[in-house]
């Protein structure tokens, strides 16, 4: 690979590309799923992708490949030149010269790569068995899976910058289907960690089964306005979709309503939103972003006030500020966008029980679905299929499903009465504790 | 490209530990994505995907190993790893491969890789010209994409074949704004076609106008009332409801492990008499069509539901073994990074005999969902949720005004039984369907239909 990179940099320079950057992403992963006591699906992946971007006449061109022959070098260089010739974006583009020092972030656990396949297969079979035997009403275990993945990114550019990081993660998941007469309900649970020993069949199977069993007697509630707590899992899903409104790229494109709101109150005082790429053990902890800018921790919202948007070099230059180190590519083929790193509501004082006790009567939403279509970051509107339970006298009462919870993310931020203490990262880098959302509209029966 | 003797060696290596089926899939794919934002080309991105995957079965167990290293040594290493993982006790012998070029049904006239970027930009500019005539459109993103996927597939049953799949799609996403509120509109037609798709099938100006009008209409729409009511769903992307709420539950991925509400219901009535539904990979140059599927099978036209009776599931090779049934040509995958599984192609409710005007006139009060957005479904329970992108309120059988923020929720099996009108004009629309084997192009479709009662989630 070193040889390919050197050849490519030379070819790019000779062809008249003024500044060039090479981004190499390598991933190795393993996944096993089981069905009816045997390994039904066993997938091993190793793949490597490389992208070249470069500046020609002030415009940034992009090209990418997974083949590493001489033809690939010609194709990459020609691809960047054609791409740059078509781009009409007037923003000033740059390949980053580099920072003096980079924070050291070490998330890679070498022991995880040494876990024997046999142990992973044993775990997945065990999870299925325990899910099925959790209760006589559990009719099937679905999507039972154990996976491990390690990935690395290397960023090399024509200014001599050469950065590298490596990360890995293991995950176990189970789904349970509960049946009782005509009634049917599903539940699921997944856990992600860098320590394989933390994956425990009892915990994963029990939580999936419990969720299905509890939902078995779920029914819609009458339509109306309710006091609502959004539990951590559901709130994490919601924040994941709407985190894009904090991107300066979306603001500059008119796809977020936070334009010009820096320094203003956009949320209730209970809300502090943190972007922390240096979080020890965080799912997206790293020392540099996808342009080579060093990572830094910041409060995006502090006690309700919008402190900063998230920036890469291009959006920062346009706004006349410094990059916040939030340049991200969706994958190696993608252009550089803006995205949060480890992004979360700063936890408050009370756990879920405490929030419920304060609410008294209302609804706890535990799961939302249909986010890719039912949540619109441009307007902030969401209308989502939801499940959960009612709360009576501050305690969990009846399971609820087939309801739609509707609202608007910007209004929700302002209505948050309290943020819970139960922040827990489960593999995704955008994460939330449970929150007391005030009042929301629910459509049911 | 894949050489026959290499393919043979890979298959034999993969079967060394007792597997009873082995397959190699090699892919070389060129993608080109372009985006225009506010009238300027913001992105022009090309990439080449390249890699191969080896799959081995032993009974109903399967192993899939894939790599970018498609040298003979790389592929043999991949096969060895698969063989080590499957270790079984059979004495299956691989057949000798015999190359046969699959029939190219979906003729491509102008390969996108032969078309200059400048000509592609012209199409985007034509759409932008229309966007500029809408004062309330604050932002429009115009996307052009094309893809040429070359695949080689060989398996231990003696199959050795190759195919070229060419896709072109053009979409406009428009955002209307009044300063404090945004509403969006989207339209994105495409096909298994080359650049000639712009000669007859895609008019960039029409695409832009449709997306922009939707956004502007919704900006002025009041919130939709919530509750149980009759709903008329228009043709085209309205078919997404069948795709999500029923189609996924008829895929072997859900049926074989017993996770579908339609398990064991072949030959039984699962829908109203007026419902016939089809999954068809043979439709000429359509977005979800195929010359061969990703397991090398010839395309089929599969009747899923006939006059309300469940006739067929969509089945891939591995699930065929689990179910004791034959595969149906539905083995599909995004690319070499995924093992194939049962997936939809062009899936639609067939045309019926009811008049469109009558079904609205006789519905009383309810919702006319002119344009559906996406949705999701839990196949094990059939519970679904769909967004209505463009909806209209119907009062006493007359369309009175647009409404926004509506969604449809319910269970697939309930909805199928409650369809009481099926119109005459079936139309399809393009989608990207994500599932176990990645994202594949699929068409959804239906004529205008009426459902006698659905839960409408609204913000009011």
In short:
With 445 residues, chain A is of the alpha+beta class. Helices cover 24% and strands 37% of the residues of chain A. In chain B, strand 6 (159-177) and strand 7 form a beta hairpin.
Overview of the molecule:
The complex is a heterodimer of chains A (445) and B (460). Chain A has two domains: 212 residues, 2-Layer Sandwich (PmbA/TldD fold), CATH 3.30.2290; 118 residues, no CATH class. With 445 residues, chain A is α+β, with helices and mostly antiparallel strands. In chain A, 24% of the residues lie in helices and 37% in strands. Chain A has a six-stranded antiparallel β-sheet. Chain A has a five-stranded mixed β-barrel with strand order 7-14-15-16-19. In chain A, 52% of the residues are buried. In chain A, a hairpin with a 4-residue loop joins strand 4 and strand 5. Chain A is built from eleven helices and 19 strands. Chain B is α+β, with helices and mostly antiparallel strands and 460 residues long. Chain B has two domains: 216 residues, 2-Layer Sandwich (PmbA/TldD fold), CATH 3.30.2290.10; 231 residues, no CATH class. In chain B, strands 1, 2, 3, 4, 5, 6, 7 and 8 form an eight-stranded mixed β-sheet that branches. In chain B, strands 12-11-10-15-22-21 form a six-stranded mixed β-sheet, with helices on one face. In chain B, a hairpin with a 2-residue loop joins strand 11 and strand 12. In chain B, helix 3 runs parallel beside helix 5. Chain B is globular and about 70 Å long. The mean pLDDT of chain B is 94. Classes of the chains: A alpha+beta (445), B alpha+beta (460). At the A-B interface, strand 2, strand 3, helix 2, strand 4 and strand 6 of A face strand 1, strand 2, strand 3, helix 2 and helix 3 of B. Strand 3 of chain A pairs parallel with strand 2 of chain B, so a sheet runs across the interface.
């Amino acid at each position: 690979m070193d040889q390919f990179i050197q050849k490519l940099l030379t070819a790019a320079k000779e062809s008249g590309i003024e500044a060039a950057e090479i981004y190499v992403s390598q991933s190795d992963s393993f996944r096993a799923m089981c069905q009816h006591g045997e390994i039904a699906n066993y997938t091993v992946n190793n793949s490597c992708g490389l992208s070249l971007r470069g500046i020609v006449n002030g415009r940034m061109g992009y090209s990418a490949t997974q083949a590493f022959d001489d033809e690939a070098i010609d194709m990459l260089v020609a691809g960047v030149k054609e791409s740059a010739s078509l781009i009409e974006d007037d923003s000033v583009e740059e390949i980053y010269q580099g920072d003096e020092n980079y924070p050291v972030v070490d998330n890679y656990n070498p022991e995880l790569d040494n876990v024997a396949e046999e142990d992973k297969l044993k775990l997945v079979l065990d999870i299925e068995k325990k899910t099925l035997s959790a209760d006589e009403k559990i009719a099937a275990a679905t999507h039972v899976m154990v996976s491990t993945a390690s990935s690395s990114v290397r960023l090399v550019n024509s200014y001599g910058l050469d950065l590298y990081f490596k990360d890995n993660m293991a995950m176990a998941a189970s789904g349970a289907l509960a049946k009782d007469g005509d009634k049917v309900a599903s539940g699921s649970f997944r856990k992600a960690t860098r320590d394989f020993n933390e994956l425990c069949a009892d915990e994963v199977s029990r939580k999936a089964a419990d969720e299905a069993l509890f939902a078995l007697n779920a029914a819609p509630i009458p339509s109306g306005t309710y006091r609502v707590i959004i539990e951590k899992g559901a709130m994490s899903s919601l924040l994941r979709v709407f985190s894009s409104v904090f991107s300066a790229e979306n603001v500059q494109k008119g796809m977020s309503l936070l334009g010009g709101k820096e320094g203003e109150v956009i949320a209730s005082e209970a809300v502090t939103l943190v972007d922390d790429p240096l979080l020890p053990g965080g799912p997206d902890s790293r020392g540099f972003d996808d342009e080579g800018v060093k990572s830094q921790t910041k409060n995006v919202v502090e006690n309700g006030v919008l402190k900063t948007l998230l920036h890469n070099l291009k959006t920062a230059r346009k706004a006349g500020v410094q990059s916040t180190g939030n340049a991200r590519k969706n994958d190696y083929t993608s252009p550089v966008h803006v995205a949060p790193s480890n992004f979360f509501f700063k936890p408050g004082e009370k756990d879920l029980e405490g929030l419920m006790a304060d609410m008294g009567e209302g609804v706890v939403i535990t799961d939302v679905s249909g986010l890719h279509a039912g949540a619109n970051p441009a307007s902030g509107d969401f209308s989502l299929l939801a499940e959960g339970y009612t709360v009576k006298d501050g305690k969990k009462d009846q399971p609820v499903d087939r309801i739609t919870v509707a609202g608007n993310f910007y209004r929700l931020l302002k209505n948050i009465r309290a943020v819970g203490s139960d922040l827990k990262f489960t593999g995704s880098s955008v994460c939330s504790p449970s929150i007391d959302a005030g009042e929301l509209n629910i459509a049911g029966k | 490209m894949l050489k026959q003797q290499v393919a043979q060696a890979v298959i034999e290596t993969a079967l060394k530990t007792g597997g009873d089926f082995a397959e190699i899939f090699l892919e070389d794919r060129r993608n080109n994505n372009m985006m225009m934002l506010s009238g300027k080309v913001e992105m022009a991105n090309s990439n080449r995907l390249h890699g191969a995957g080896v799959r081995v079965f032993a009974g109903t167990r399967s192993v899939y190993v894939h790599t970018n290293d498609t040298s003979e040594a790389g592929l043999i290493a991949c096969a060895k790893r698969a063989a080590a993982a499957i270790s079984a006790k059979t004495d299956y012998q691989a057949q000798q491969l015999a190359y046969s070029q699959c029939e190219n049904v979906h003729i491509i006239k102008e390969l996108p890789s032969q078309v200059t970027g400048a000509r592609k930009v012209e199409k985007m500019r034509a759409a932008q010209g229309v966007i500029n005539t809408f004062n309330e459109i604050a932002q429009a993103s115009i996307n052009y994409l094309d893809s040429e996927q070359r695949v080689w597939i060989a398996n231990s049953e003696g199959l050795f074949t190759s195919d070229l799949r060419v896709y072109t799609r053009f979409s406009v996403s428009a955002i209307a704004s009044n300063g404090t509120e945004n509403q969006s509109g989207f339209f994105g037609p495409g096909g298994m076609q080359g650049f000639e798709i712009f000669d007859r099938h895609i008019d960039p100006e029409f695409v832009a106008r449709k997306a922009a009008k939707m956004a502007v209409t919704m900006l002025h729409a009041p919130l939709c009332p919530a509750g149980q009511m009759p709903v008329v769903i228009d043709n085209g992307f309205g078919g997404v409801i069948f795709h999500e709420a029923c189609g996924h539950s008829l895929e072997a991925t859900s049926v074989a492990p017993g996770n579908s509400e339609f398990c064991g219901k072949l030959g039984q009535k699962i829908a109203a008499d007026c419902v016939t539904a089809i999954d068809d990979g043979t439709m000429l140059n359509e977005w979800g069509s195929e010359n061969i599927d990703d397991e090398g099978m010839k395309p089929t036209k599969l009747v899923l539901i006939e006059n309300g009776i469940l006739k067929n599931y969509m089945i891939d090779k591995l699930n065929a073994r689990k179910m004791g049934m034959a595969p149906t040509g539905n083995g599909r995958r995004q690319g070499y990074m995924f093992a194939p599984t049962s997936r939809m192609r062009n899936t639609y409710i067939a045309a019926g005999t009811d008049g469109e005007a009558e079904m609205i006139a006789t519905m009383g009060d309810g919702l006319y969902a002119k344009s559906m957005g996406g949705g999701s479904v839990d196949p094990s329970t059939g519970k679904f949720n769909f967004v209505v992108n463009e909806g209209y309120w119907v009062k006493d059988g007359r369309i009175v005004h647009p409404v926004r923020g509506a969604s449809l929720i319910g269970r697939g099996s309930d909805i199928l039984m409650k369809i009481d009108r099926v119109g005459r004009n079936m139309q399809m629309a393009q989608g990207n369907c994500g599932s176990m084997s990645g994202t594949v192009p699929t068409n959804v479709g239906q004529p205008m239909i009426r459902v006698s009662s659905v839960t409408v989630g609204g913000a009011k």
